[in-house]
Amino acid sequence: MIFPADYKSVGMTRTDPAGRIGGPIYFTTDYLIAKLPSGFQIYGVKSEGEGLLRTLVSLVLIAKGKEIIQFDEKIDSHDRTRLIESAIPLCNGIVNTVIFEGLDRHTTFIQHPSLHEVMEVEIIDIAPPEPPWLAFAIERLVKSGILGELNVRFTTKLIDLRQFEGEKMVFPCYASELKGKHLDTDTDIEDNSTLVGCDISKQIFELRFPDLTYKHINMCPLKTELYLPTKPFITRCCQSKKSGMINLNGIDGAVVHWGASEYDIVDAIRMLVKVLKGIQDNIKPN
After folding, report:
1. What CATH number is associated with residue 207?
2. How many CB atoms lie within 10 A of CB 248?
3. Continuous H helices in the chain
4. Are 169 and 196 in contact (CB under 8 A)?
5. How confident is the model at residue 103 (pLDDT cuts 50, 70, 90)?
6. Mean pLDDT for the stretch of residues 133-150
7. What is the rounded end-to-end Cα distance, in angstroms, of the chain?
8. Nearest CA among 147, 42, 155, 18 for reference residue 95
9. Strands (E), the chain
10. Is residue 19 part of a domain?
11. Please, are residues 121 and 231 in contact by the beta-carbon 8 Å criterion?
12. Omega prior to 89 cis, within 30 of 0
């Protein structure tokens, strides 16, 4: 796949670029798109010299004519994952290159688009509430384009606590509206009940009902009792001290606080991407 790392390295011309060999070209230009009466041509650029304008030494043809199609709407040029996903269905054996014009009129292209370079990150979240905050927030962030340059796409795994509803089930919070008893409101919890909650809920249960016998289902994603990550992941925990990078069963992930803001979530995803790329190594083993 050829996909310029930044659209600033892609130049545009409406004249035959072959006639420009030996002439000046802007220093950031690594690729040149020629929009000619006969159709598009895309070249790799070699230049030499110093300063803003350098000397164009040679051009290497990358694609031309029927190999190239232009996307029919303006799109965020920073959203690399969306660009790749948009280009793939347009390439059919004849077409292998897609040109995109951004909302700011900057232009880039992709040749032989592939998701191979796009990292898969799994969102592990708890429901209810509805919508689950982490999954909902990341969906909004993806739509905003703020994660676009990271080359990442998301899948969601929801741990649905409604599967545990019942008369002798105890949940941490009444606001969840789960059918059962709730630690924060009920006082008539029975012996031999089952607590569905995290380690903090377990401590609260034992402080409030020290004489009761109970079973405990740990719902915290970090405990992997209900779900084991299958790919790099992001999840949330009610203990702020556990926020940061973590490794569960050999898989890298990011943890944000239960009530993390979208700003915090973006920071965590960016850090996770750096870890996955080997830029930083500050993961806490579980």
Report:
1. 3.40.50
2. 19
3. 80-87, 133-144, 199-208, 262-276
4. yes
5. confident
6. 93
7. 37
8. 42
9. 10-13, 24-26, 31-36, 39-48, 53-64, 68-70, 97-101, 107-111, 119-127, 152-160, 169-171, 181-182, 193-197, 214-218, 233-237, 244-248, 251-257, 284-285
10. yes
11. yes
12. no
Task: Tell me the pTM.
Answer: 0.82
59 and 152 share one domain: no
Q: What are phi and psi of 163, to 5 degrees?
A: -65, -15
Q: What is the total count of domains within the chain?
A: 2
Q: What is the pLDDT of residue 280?
A: 54
What is the phi-psi region of residue 280: left when phi exceeds 0, alpha when psi lies from -120 to 50, beta otherwise? Answer: beta
| 150 and 273 Cβ atoms separated by less than 8 Å | yes
Q: For the segment 269-278, what is each residue's pLDDT rounded down to a tens digit?
A: 999 999 998 8
69 compared with 148, residue with greater pLDDT = 69
Check whether residue 110 and residue 126 sit in a common domain: no
Q: Is the confidence at residue 108, as pLDDT, over 90? A: yes
Helix axes 133-144 and 262-276, enclosed angle (nearest 10): 80
**Within a domain: 136:** yes
Confidence of residue 48 (pLDDT cuts 50, 70, 90): very high
Residue ending a domain, among 58, 93, 114, is 114
ω into 4 cis (within 30 of 0): no
Instruction: Say whether both 80 and 180 belong to one domain.
Output: no
Q: Which structure tokens are listed for 128? A: 């209810």
Quote the domain boundaries for residue 11: 7-114
Q: What is the b/e burial string over 162-181, where b = at least 16 CB atoms within 10 angstroms of the residue's CB?
A: eebeeeebbbbeeebebebb
